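Entry, Tuesday afternoon. Goal for today is a structural model of the target with flavin mononucleotide bound, before we commit to ordering more compound. Inputs were pasted exactly as handed over by J.K., no edits. I checked the ligand SMILES twice against the vendor sheet because last time a stereocentre got dropped in transcription.
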Amino acid sequence: MTNKKQLKIGSIIDGVGWNYMGWRHPDMPANASENIDYYVQKAQRAEEGKFDMVFLADVSHIGPGMIPHYLSMFEGVSILSALSMATTHIGLIATIATSYADPFTVARQMASLDKISDGRAGWNAITSNPGGLANYSRTHLSKSDLYPMKKEFLEIVEGLWDSYEDDAFIRDKENGIFFNPRKMHPLNYRGKFFSVEGPLNISRSRQGRPVIFQAGTSSEFMDIASKHAEGVLVNGENFEYAKSFSIELKRRVALEGRSPDDFLIMPTQNLIVGKTEREAEEKLQELESLMPYGYRIPKPKFFGSAEKVANQIQHWYEAGAMDLLLLRQEHPSGFDDFIDLVVPILQEKGIFRKEYELHTLRGNLGLPYPENRYETSTKK
Ligand SMILES: Cc1cc2nc3c(=O)[nH]c(=O)nc-3n(C[C@H](O)[C@H](O)[C@H](O)COP(=O)(O)O)c2cc1C
């Protein structure tokens, strides 16, 4: 228990909300999902709360029945590039599906975001649902191809991120030496789905390379995550499930020769919190009044007074079911309420930071610096 990291916290910014009714609330800009000022304000507030990250989920295929947020939203890396200029410490995580993108492009986009933000980028590498095959000219593929494709995709992106050793660029104007070509490495990857020669034309960042997150549930998913992920999202509905998922995944991480302490289990929670239980009930009723007549909203798992929610969080964290709490706000004041009411209690309990430790995402998450695979010197 002694070397257990402090609890980490992130917020998923879902524009108008990850629900059907949030956009109707008087305090929610109805165009929040396409409103950069809204995203900037939420990210800056999360940084005031000393959160580790803002996280953007994504969708690959839509239809008219989807939640309003998915119907009109920004693309993730574009938003995060803007947020990187409006924040200084908080991590910036984009979701990009390995089933519907090209590894060279993703490696380049994410490495650029990592440099633009000076070491604060993360990539949530998901397979996504098979619906996206119809949007990305891949109708010849099937669901069973998605994980084999993801494996190749990750091997390529990680390889490309090592294209240059850390000291490859000399930029010596006097002697006219821009870089050391011996420290540049092509990849020459030949796979079933992708073939990529490389190298990538961008150097490594202050944190080495973006942090890789993943989300999924199956055994096939866990096999890939235990090799390539540094944090994994899990549905936070059920404590016992999150705990057993954590135990199983960390067991597989250890089998890969990696330290389970450097692997984050990240349950998502769409909490509602108030100063008192009653205030939380009122917020829930407010939201229910925005639903069509007769519809109820399931009570979030983390619900009630700030004290009660802080105790629930502590329980999940100490039991090993949660290393990083990934918040979604159900009510438009959700993040503000959490930062104002719950964060001070978690800080008082000593399980959450009062100040950022470092400037990089990897540094604040307590994850090790990834050495370049070609590094020959002893340089760190
Ligand atoms: C906690 C969690 C979060 C997810 N987030 C997204 C997302 O933002 N966008 C998306 O397209 N799919 C998302 N997925 C779906 C996965 O990409 C994947 O399609 C799904 O989990 C099926 O794979 P599995 O059988 O391994 O679970 C998420 C899955 C989980 C469990």
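The CA atoms of residues 103 and 156 lie 6 Å apart.
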